[in-house]
TrEMBL record:
Cell cycle in keyword set: no
Every RING-type domain range: 59-101
Record localization: Membrane
Keywords from the named record: Membrane, Metal-binding, Signal, Transferase, Transmembrane, Transmembrane helix, Zinc, Zinc-finger
Pfam families (alphabetical): zf-RING_2 (PF13639)
Protein name: Zinc finger, C3HC4 type (RING finger)
Keyword Transmembrane helix on entry: yes
Signal peptide segment: 1-24
Membrane topology note: Single-pass membrane protein
InterPro entries linked to this entry: ATL10/ATL72-79-like (IPR044602), Znf_RING (IPR001841), Znf_RING/FYVE/PHD (IPR013083)
GO biological process: protein ubiquitination
Length: 119
């Protein structure tokens, strides 16, 4: 009787795992293919302007600080900012933010946007 209970619990756990893995596979496309070049270019671009009382902000990919007047790309899904060249290279082979891994959808890509932002 105990053996049957243990087998039933093990089978139940295995089936739950299969269902979870199947749902995850259906929600995520196969692999981590990057965005198309035209979708990457369509993401917003901003001009960095440092605030006088704040520590300098930087690119999480190359780890260097932004300079005043430098063009940076702002990801619309999460608002994270990176050097244009750094994040464009990343997004051509990945479809998510390099910092928070939030997925970027090509359908959500907007027309290029020029704006001045402070950290």
């Amino acid at each position: 009787m105990i053996c049957a209970l243990v087998c039933a619990l093990g089978l139940n756990s295995m089936l739950q795992c299969v269902v979870r893995c199947t749902r995850a596979a259906l929600a995520e496309p196969a692999g981590n293919a990057g965005l198309k070049r035209e979708d990457v270019v369509a993401l917003p671009v901003a001009t960095y302007a440092a605030a006088p009382q704040q520590a300098p902000a930087g690119c999480a990919i190359c780890l260097s600080d932004f300079s005043d007047g430098e063009k940076i790309r702002v990801l619309p899904a999460c608002g994270h900012r990176f050097h244009v060249v750094c994040v464009d290279t990343w997004l051509l082979s990945h479809c998510s933010c390099p910092t928070c891994r939030r997925r970027l959808s090509p359908l959500g890509a907007e027309a290029p946007l020029e704006m001045a932002i402070a950290p």
